[in-house]
Design goal:
Elements: E1 5-7, H1 20-32, H2 42-64, E2 71-74, H3 94-106, E3 110-113, E4 126-130, H4 132-141, E5 155-161, E6 166-170, H5 176-192, E7 197-199, H6 203-213, E8 242-245, E9 253-257, E10 272-274, E11 277-283, H7 287-295, H8 324-340, H9 350-356, H10 360-370, H11 382-402, E12 409-411, E13 414-418, H12 422-436, H13 466-475, H14 477-498
Parallel strand pairs: 1-2, 5-8
Antiparallel strand pairs: 2-4, 3-4, 5-6, 7-10, 8-9, 10-11, 11-13, 12-13
Helix pairs in contact: 1-2, 1-3, 2-3, 5-11, 7-11, 11-12
Length: about 500
């Protein structure tokens, strides 16, 4: 059974309700469904409005994912709610969530798949998606760029239960270092929040990509060593970042997560646009091997650090050509897994070993032979400390560019910026690396080239087919999404200047 969905409790919220008329209608249904004796207090009225706003926004964000299997996951058992306990739902109350869902169902706006109790402590969430008039409304409105409320704190600290192999969240200490991290992340998110980040691909290819990603066992480029059990959802409005630390330590992990662009297949990243501008990506080359050598105060060997000497028929090594492109990807995954695998359970996929023509033991020995310092670090989880270092570099790169009003999207150890600003990105990456890794020089890959689905078509007589061009761009979700941002930003400026507001359309 597919269980892919968005979690109601982790969704960012618009600064103002995207569909205020719907919220008002839903609030009224909540009120009409109850027999009341006492007057409704302001506190109850505010809470009811907030919960209706949140659930409707969640349903809309699920619709935005363009996946027929996507649902809004909502926990209804009281055991999941507590005003202050860590790990519980603190900002919502079970009573108003239950009331909101009942009102949505009474209006015919949702289909409900009830949750199941697995045991005393665990319950599968209730799953919702829009239907009826609400679905028609979303279809009519289309994909709308959303201006979110940026959270004050986005640093997350997790630990790991070695018995059940599950991670769990722990309380983040309130230290000057954490406050600085949160302040920097808030600055980054406030900038990203104002941008429209999209893909310059056709509507058909966009929907195909969303369907591909939402399939169970989808293998994201970010985590190639394991699959996403229930798939991933593609939602252009998911652009705010969190910084997640591991093992209960603020020097383990710390990478930036949350942007939709981080989990799409790598072949689609050249199609990313920022506010309609073409983009380019620059990647640190061989980052973690170089961090390993910096840790032991040694220079790395000459040549490609992922070349371990497997040269079929003595063929000259060229990482840009097969079979070496695939071979290099497998060796890179295995190298990084050796740095991160504390349990010793990691195994290379059988099909990858077949491609290499060797066993995993032989692959491991070849990697250690190429990089002797690795021998003393296998199984010790040093990769998490390297992740912290590359997260420090990423933070500096983004802050340096934001100070120049340049949007920068982090993708692990690479970054995406508008194409005409690639030199500023390269300079920021060089400086951030040398500042964090004193005495070392970064190795960078060449900037990528922008790609687009939208090609000019020509008539048999050689003239530009303007009708086809206008139709292609006029119907493109990419362009409609960008236009919705302009409307919202222009409307916000108008309201600020004139004190007016744009009317909303009721169902």
């Amino acid at each position: 059974m597919k269980r892919i969905g968005l979690n109601l409790t982790t969704l960012p919220l618009p600064q103002t309700p995207l569909f205020p008329d719907l919220v008002d209608q839903l609030v009224q249904e909540c009120i009409d469904s109850k027999v009341r004796i006492n007057k409704i207090s302001k506190d109850s009225a505010d809470k009811r409005y907030k919960h209706c706003h949140i659930v409707l926004q969640g349903l809309y964000q699920v619709w935005c994912c363009m996946s027929s299997s996507a649902r809004l996951n909502v926990f209804l058992s009281p055991q999941y709610y507590h005003a202050s306990k860590l790990g519980k739902i603190n900002h919502l109350t079970q009573y108003f969530i239950q009331e909101t869902i009942e009102a949505l169902y009474a209006l015919g706006w949702i289909e409900v798949q009830e949750g199941l109790r697995l045991n005393v402590e665990e319950t599968l969430p209730t799953r919702l998606h829009a239907t009826g008039e609400l679905l028609d409304y979303f279809n009519k409105k289309g994909l709308i760029w959303t201006n979110y409320s940026v959270p004050l704190e986005s640093v997350v600290l997790k630990d790991y239960d070695r018995e059940n192999k599950e991670s769990f969240q722990v309380r983040v200490p309130k230290t000057p270092i954490v406050r600085k991290m949160n302040a920097n992340l808030r600055k980054i998110n406030e900038h990203l929040n104002q941008q429209a980040i999209c893909l310059h691909i056709s509507n058909d290819n966009l929907k195909s990509l969303a369907a591909r990603m939402s399939q169970p066992k989808y293998r994201s480029e970010w985590h190639r060593t394991y699959t996403e059990e229930y798939g991933k959802l593609l939602n252009f409005n998911q652009r705010l970042l969190r910084r997640i630390f591991a093992r209960g330590k603020l020097d383990h992990g710390g990478r930036f997560y949350g942007g939709w662009w981080q989990f799409i297949p790598s072949e689609f990243r050249p199609y990313i646009t920022i506010n309609g501008l073409a983009t380019t990506e620059i990647d640190f080359s061989e980052l973690h091997p170089r961090l390993l050598y910096a840790k032991v105060n040694k220079l790395p060997p000459e040549g490609d650090l992922y070349d371990i000497g497997l040269h079929p028929n003595g063929q000259e090594y060229d990482k840009t050509k097969e079979p070496y492109t695939t071979q290099r990807r497998i060796v890179k995954e295995a190298f990084n897994a050796l740095l991160n695998d504390e349990s010793g359970r990691y195994q290379v996929h059988k099909k990858d070993l077949t491609i290499l023509g060797i066993t995993y033991k032989e692959l491991k020995n070849l990697i250690v032979k190429r990089h002797p310092p690795l021998k003393d670090h296998v199984g010790k989880g040093v990769g998490l400390t390297f992740q912290f270092i590359d997260s420090q570099i990423a933070e500096r790169v983004m802050l340096k560019l934001i100070d120049k009003e340049i949007t920068c999207l982090p993708v692990h150890d690479s970054f995406i910026v508008p194409s005409h600003q690639w030199r500023e990105l390269k300079d920021a990456m060089d400086k951030a690396f040398s500042e964090i890794i004193s005495g070392s020089v970064a190795k960078l890959k060449p900037p990528t080239k922008f790609e687009s689905d939208f090609r000019m078509e020509f008539l048999p007589n050689g003239e530009l087919d303007r009708d086809a061009l206008y139709k292609m761009h006029g119907e493109a979700l990419h362009n409609k999404y960008l236009q919705s941002r302009r409307v919202i930003i222009d409307g916000r400026a108008m309201r600020s200047n004139r004190g007016t507001h744009s009317p909303s359309t009721p169902i």
